Amino acid sequence: MKRIQILALLILLIFSKTAFPQVLIEFNKITYNPDFFNNSGCSTYNRFGPNPVAVNGYNIRTVGGTLYTWNAPKDLSLYAWGNTETGQRTNAVVSVEYPFLANKTYLVEIYGMNDHNWNNWVVPKDHYNAVFWFKLENNPQILTTASNPCEESYSPVEKSVGRYSKLIADPAIAFEMKTYSVKFSPLENRSALKIFFDSSPVDPKVIIDNIFRLRNIKIVEMPYEEDSRYTAAYENVPRDLRIGEAYNISVEQPLVGGGGTVVRPIIISPNQWLSNSNGIGYHVNLSSIIPNLYVSNGVELSIHEPWNGVGRPTRGEYFPVPKNYKNTYFTFILENHDVIINTDNLPTTSVEFSLSYNP
User: Fold this and answer.
1) Which of 125-139, 188-202, 314-328 has the lowest mean pLDDT?
2) Can you tell me the distance from the alpha carbon of 167 to that of 112, in angstroms, rounded to the nearest whole number?
3) Are residues 211 and 70 in the same domain?
4) Exposed end of the chain (fewer CB within 10 Å): N or C?
5) Strand, coil or helix: what is 349?
């Protein structure tokens, strides 16, 4: 009986991982075509560039140190250098055009070979891996200051971790196949995944010397999971080196409640409000936004006005509901284990709320 239970559990684990919608973008299976890169913006370099090129039906863009090799094993090679003999600091950026939906969770996984630029298996002193910044953004185009997006260059990257930005900093510099993964739980739709292979930290004591030969990118859509608290450190270098401004990473923590309380941010856009049946005012049932919402009691609702970018960064301001906010009066009720937000006018801009409740 115990064996049957174990077998059933294994089958459940296998099917639960493959049952969710997923896409696989395979750079290692592109069929050779001499005209494949004609419209990439880097056709003379025979590689991906700032203009979209479709792989498995999804538009790919790159800027900086990249190279595509047609010889087996095919891959999209990403280059990142810092404090090397050339004195140049470079990174590589890959953009994937993909419809990330609000109130879903996405597993993003990359697979490839971790490689380096030395000719033996002995690691030179003070040489370390680059890092990966994964970001969900609204624009698939890659913003860069590079004079030539087809050559090695450095594109600015915001060094922060939060709901839409994740960091992978691997200390293991061995030549080996690697799988790296991050999760995103967006509260609003995003249209692009950007992967920065970056020569960070910017420390004169640290030499970044790294190539990642990217074979594929997997994106798996799953039911919504709220983010846990974030941590971030440049673990690609030894702990005793992580001193000074070069190691600062901005971390934006999600709201966390005490005990069994759930605290959850929500963004409601103007087109999500519905007219009330009596023709007066508007409403939104939060169960239409939050999958499987079940509220027992202890409901608190606030309007969150984010930091305006002036002065020292803060978490913004929170205004308890009921509240008259931007010429609209907001109230809420708890009904059939659902929270319904009501307004007297139709909001003309997106409004961010913080919902706290006991499930």
Assistant:
1) 314-328
2) 17
3) yes
4) N
5) coil
Residue 113 tokens read as 């070979």
Classify the phi-psi angles of 85: left when phi > 0, otherwise alpha if psi is within -120 to 50, otherwise beta: alpha
Q: What total number of domains does the chain contain?
A: 2
The answer, yes or no, to whether residue 195 has pLDDT greater than 60, is yes
Distance, CA of 265 to CA of 216 (rounded, Å): 33
125 to 15, 128, 268, 293: CA distances (angstroms): 45, 9, 52, 54
Picking from 189, 224, 251, the residue at the C-terminal end of a domain is 251
Please list the residues that pair with 324 across neighbouring strands: 329
Summary mean pLDDT of the chain = 87
Q: What is the CA radius of gyration of the chain?
A: 24
Segment 33-88, tens digit of pLDDT: 999 999 999 998 999 999 999 999 999 999 999 999 898 889 999 999 998 766 67
Q: For residue 238, give every residue at least 6 positions away whose Cβ sits within 8 Å of its Cβ, in sequence order, or none.
A: 171
In DSSP terms, 153 is beta-bridged to 91
Are 35 and 179 part of one and the same domain? yes
- Please check whether residue 93 is in contact with residue 155, taking contact to mean a CB–CB distance below 8 angstroms: yes
DSSP assignment of 112-172: EEEE-S-SSSSPPTTEE--EEEEEEES--SPP---S-TTSSB------EEBTTEEEE----
Query: pTM (2 decimals)?
Result: 0.72
Cis peptide before 306 (omega within 30 of 0): no
Domain hosting 168: range is: 18-251
d(C-alpha 158, C-alpha 200), whole Å: 11
